[in-house]
Design brief:
By secondary structure, this protein is of the alpha+beta class. Helix content is 56%, strand content 9%. Strands 1, 2, 3, 4, 5, 6, 7, 8 and 9 form a nine-stranded antiparallel β-sheet that branches. Strand 2 (249-254) and strand 3 (260-261) form a beta hairpin. Helix 1 (3-21) runs antiparallel to helix 2 (26-39) and helix 23 packs antiparallel against helix 24. The chain is globular, with a radius of gyration of 26 Å.
């Protein structure tokens, strides 16, 4: 073992430990790894930083923007609405529907994005169908993870491995090269969950109680006023049916004469009524242009303020020990004192039948506020609030849906026909979004998940270091001497299981890029097809079912009231089933002997 190989192995072990413990963010670990390669003389500065200029980094960043166009224009929301209409009360049929939709969506969008977008929809379905959310949320996450295996762009892991293949003399994956086996994986996963997994899923929580009383799913209570020319005037609450038209639930009616009314279905709506409504941020902001209702006039929300002015929208949470706890907005003179306007309040779904200005604030309340960034940051610096996110740009642009679809279709057409390189195809789609104003230029950076981009860039550089120092060949020789006599299929199975093991505590991309060079060099040493090993590692990196550490699983962990062992119980059999599918079909599609 040379000193350079020893250095790389030490850095590899240190990185694996940091990835597993998550004491330091994964992107920072990646940057530290690159810095260590430079300081130890393993790579030159140009070699170490080459990963940050790799075309796959640009491709992944651009794909975030391209899929962001589908989200911004409400196409993902439209899928959710359709799911609502199709869903009945049959648990078996609901599970199948949720998993199929999640898998289809994740084939073109990141599985984490798919899970986040469909989570509120599935929660609502569970509530209406009187089914415990634990019965539907794990199938949602698993369906999204399975769907990511079907296309090149289904996960960033597929793209990262594809980009690394030319280093070993292999062609990158085509758009649908992984699709046939990926579809088999989805089919086996769906069959398992419907026939066996459903019986293993826990049934926790009362389906009869409102789910929003227990889980924070970013729903707010806001005040809107009925304008004199509104078509709602004279109609009953039931006839108005804001839940169908705008996804808003009327939870109270306040009248000028001081009456506080529960939203009885027969209650007639009058001009000037102040309606207390509950809904998501996007839906509350939509009331400015629909149904003849307006966010309380003294708030003066304007599209210009949200886009170009100093006034922005923020979600902020009241911290424990905050000076705001127990006091009302009126008593605090919140707007006058802090320069911020509270547009809506989230209190874990609790229905507030009083004006927000008269409601004593509590720890954990989430406020939707409008104001200048410096005013919000000043209040946060005092320890009173935690800024959750800037939501200024979350308005839905339904009129731009055709352009979002056109941009994605352009990308697919160029990539499938191989008329241009993949990075050029995805950039063409992004430029179409910008040219049609479907996405604003200032929004682009907010749509990109920079931590993932930095992680992949750093690991590409580390893979280059393994190749330059022949560390990958050294590890491959060790494996060949240890298990080579058992045959190519056994070695392939070993690499699959090793990747599955590593992808539980660390990110999928990190696990794949760490194992890939060793797997390829081992295949070459044994005279086997290196592409077979690369494909098996790619599929294995998506098998994050054994623990709730996969981002898609993290999203459903708390809302589903799952325990750590629930994922082991349900995910272990699913992982075994996928292992058998891969070991059977991958050598058939990519023969072991070249």
């Amino acid at each position: 073992m040379t000193p350079q190989i020893a250095t790389v192995l030490i850095l590899l072990l240190a990185a694996l430990a940091l990835f597993a413990t998550e004491r330091i963010p994964v992107d920072i670990v990646s940057v530290l790894l690159v810095l260590a390669l430079i300081l130890t003389g393993t790579l030159t500065v140009d070699e170490a930083l080459a990963g940050f200029g790799h075309d796959v980094v640009i491709t992944i960043a651009s794909l975030f923007v391209l899929t962001g166009g589908l989200v911004k224009t409400g196409l993902v929301d439209a899928v959710g609405r359709r799911l609502h209409r199709l869903a009945g009360g049959n648990e078996f049929r609901l599970t199948a529907l949720v998993m199929v939709v999640a898998a289809a969506s994740a084939s073109v969008m990141k599985n984490t994005t798919t899970t986040a977008m469909l989570l509120p929809v599935v929660m609502g379905i569970a509530e209406r169908a009187r089914i415990q959310p634990s019965k539907l949320l794990m199938p949602l996450a698993f369906g999204a993870i399975l769907g990511g295996t079907t296309t090149l762009i289904g996960t960033s892991t597929n793209l990262a491995v594809s980009a690394a293949l030319p280093r070993y003399g292999l062609a990158p994956y085509s758009m649908f090269e992984l699709t046939p086996v990926g579809l088999a994986i989805v089919g086996v996963g769906l069959t398992y969950m419907l026939l066996i997994g459903l019986r293993l899923l826990p049934a926790r929580g009362s389906a009869a109680r409102s789910l929003t009383e227990r889980y924070h799913i970013r729903e707010y209570v806001s005040e809107v006023i009925v304008l004199p020319n509104s078509p709602l005037v004279g109609r009953s609450v039931a006839e108005a049916d804001l839940s169908e038209a705008l996804d808003l639930t009327v939870i109270g009616v306040l009248r000028d004469e001081g009456k506080r009314l529960a939203p009885h279905s027969t209650e007639k709506i009058k001009a000037g009524d102040l309606l207390l409504v509950r809904g998501r941020v996007e839906e509350i902001l939509r009331v400015k242009t629909e149904a003849g209702i307006e966010i309380k006039p003294d708030f003066k929300l304007s599209d210009r303020d949200l886009r170009d002015g100093e006034m922005q929208l923020f979600e902020v949470m009241i911290l424990r020990g905050s000076a705001l706890i127990g006091r009302t907005l009126k008593r605090l003179q919140f707007r006058e004192r802090y320069g911020l306007t509270v547009l809506a309040l989230n209190r874990h779904g609790v229905s507030l039948l009083a004006k927000m200005s008269d409601v004593p604030l509590r720890f954990g309340d989430v406020l939707l506020v409008q104001g200048r960034r410096e005013d919000v940051e000043h209040l946060a610096a005092d320890g009173n609030l935690l800024i959750l996110q800037d939501v200024s740009q979350r308005g839905t642009r339904t009129g731009k849906q055709k352009w979002a679809l056109a941009a994605f279709a352009l990308f697919l057409a160029l990539s499938v026909t191989k008329a241009v390189p993949l990075v050029v195809a995805v950039l063409a789609g992004v430029l179409l979004l910008l040219a049609t104003r479907t996405i604003n230029a200032q929004e682009i950076y907010g749509l990109i998940e920079w931590r993932l981009v930095v992680l992949i860039a750093g690991l590409i550089s580390f893979s280059a270091a393994m190749e330059k120092t022949t560390t990958d060949q050294y590890l491959a020789d060790l494996i060949v001497r240890a298990v080579g006599e058992h045959g190519g299929t056994a070695v392939l199975a070993g690499f699959f299981l090793l990747t599955v093991f590593l992808t539980q505590p660390m990110s999928n991309q990190a696990a794949a890029l760490v194992v890939l060079p060793v797997a390829v060099k081992t295949a070459l040493a044994l005279g086997l097809n290196p592409r077979t090993f690369a494909v098996a590692v790619t599929y294995a990196a998506s098998c994050s079912f054994l623990t709730p550490l996969e981002p898609a699983c993290v999203l459903v962990y708390a809302p589903g009231r799952y325990r750590f062992f629930d994922f082991i119980k349900v995910g272990s059999i699913l992982t075994l089933a996928i292992f058998l599918v891969v070991m059977l079909l991958v050598p058939m599609a990519w023969p072991l002997v070249p």
